[in-house]
Design goal:
The protein has 13 helices and 17 strands. By secondary structure, it is of the alpha/beta class. It is elongated and about 75 Å long. The N and C termini lie far apart (about 50 Å).
Length: about 400
């Protein structure tokens, strides 16, 4: 029998405990070995829980127990979780996590410790919740040179934008409903300002290209500036507005990564990804485009991915899986990356001022394909005369 510990008994931690216990026979049959939850670490008491007898408040009960082989870190954040994870890996225990903040901030360091100690550090659940994306990227697509990954990586923002589109809700009302339904936190800034998506782009970039891309190096814009008018204008032209995270490998080997709202055309695989669902497209040089789709969060979808990693750690308990990236990616500002753009101004424009572009209305226009460098120069000139309310890329 192999003993497992869980750190944090919140939404995800509870789901992990339920799944490991309820499906214990199925999991054991798949592994030809038995997994058992021995300890659960949390500061709170859970007297009504079926796991009440194994709750502990002392981290040492997990760290110093030689019978605990693997630990599911469900604490969240980058303070206690980082300290605990580092100590567990140094102690020779496998660690799995759903903590995107931690992996994005400290993944290179933690993977280096895991490699040194010949243990596994897995984090499938950190991107896409229950959607298998990191393992396929590392294993099934390993023969390909990955050139680009992009997608809808945050269910909260996708729900808000879908609500604005389908129900005609203003941003504030759509966000309030997301909070009421439990899709958004009381403080939703990580979601709506693109921070959550940037952390996931960091992990995808680092795994795909082999060097750590930090969130601070990812240009990040959220959805606060998206209005109901933008939604209506986009729909009138056959587009939907989505928050897209994207990372691509430049010809010189540097990485360009960003998060921003896009007008997504009907020909795109992401056009029909609505509500709280995520959609992620991986582009390989031989396989072409491969799309991963499903619920990106939630107790049991995320727990499913965490438990899958626990099972993988069991399979690789004698010889660690070669999951690793180095520190220090070369980061590009994307100057030569090309896009078409949708621009809305706060006041009417003189149409003759920009005759080369498609004027949608007196205050909206669309550009042709142009490099980021040229678009930035254009906006510098444009802002001398007009106030730019928003500028969104177009994904056809």
């Amino acid at each position: 029998m192999t003993n497992i510990a869980i750190m944090g008994f919140g939404t995800v931690g509870c789901g992990v405990a339920d799944l490991l216990t309820d499906n214990r026979k199925r999991i054991s049959a798949s592994l030809s070995g038995d997994l058992c939850v021995k300890r659960i670490l949390d500061l709170r008491e859970f007297p009504q829980s079926r796991f009440a007898s194994i709750i502990t408040h002392d981290f040492k009960d997990i760290l110093e127990d030689p019978d605990i082989a693997s630990v599911a870190e469900c604490v969240g954040g980058t303070t206690f979780a980082f300290d605990y994870t580092k100590k567990l890996l140094l102690a020779g225990k496998h660690v799995v996590t759903s903590n995107k903040d931690l992996v994005a901030a400290h993944g290179a360091e933690l993977l280096a410790i895991a490699k040194e100690k010949n243990v596994n550090y897995f984090f499938e659940a950190s991107v896409g919740g229950g959607i298998p994306i990191l393992s396929p990227l590392h294993d099934d697509l390993a023969a390909n040179n990955i050139t680009e990954i992009y997608g809808i990586l945050n269910g909260t923002t996708n729900f808000v934008l879908t609500n604005m589109s389908e129900n005609g809700a203003d941003f504030a009302i759509a966000l309030s409903e997301a909070q009421h339904l439990g899709y958004a936190e009381a403080n939703p800034s990580k979601d709506i300002d693109g921070i959550d998506t940037a952390n996931k782009v960091s992990i995808l970039s680092s795994l795909a290209f082999g060097k750590h891309v930090y969130p601070a190096d990812i240009q990040t814009d959220g959805i606060r500036n998206v209005t109901r008018d933008d939604i209506s204008i986009a729909e009138s032209m056959g587009y939907r507005i989505k928050l897209i995270g994207r990372t691509l490998l430049e010809p010189d080997g540097s990485v360009y990564a960003y998060v921003a709202p896009h007008l997504v055309g009907a020909s795109s695989e992401l056009y029909g990804v609505n509500g709280v669902f995520n959609g992620i497209v991986v582009r390989g040089d031989y396989v072409g485009d491969v799309m991963f789709y499903g619920r990106g969060a939630g107790r049991y979808p995320t727990a499913s991915a965490v438990v899958a990693d626990i099972m993988e750690a069991y399979r690789y308990k004698e010889k660690r899986k070669e999951l690793f990236w180095e520190d220090g990616a070369a980061v590009s500002d994307g100057s030569e990356c090309e896009s078409r753009w949708y621009v809305r101004t706060a006041e009417p424009c003189d149409a003759s001022y920009f005759e080369e572009f498609d004027m949608i209305s007196a205050s909206c226009f669309m550009t042709g394909k142009m490099t980021n460098h040229n678009f930035r120069r254009l906006m510098d000139i444009f802002r001398k005369k007009y106030t730019v309310a928003c500028a969104f890329r177009i994904l056809d």
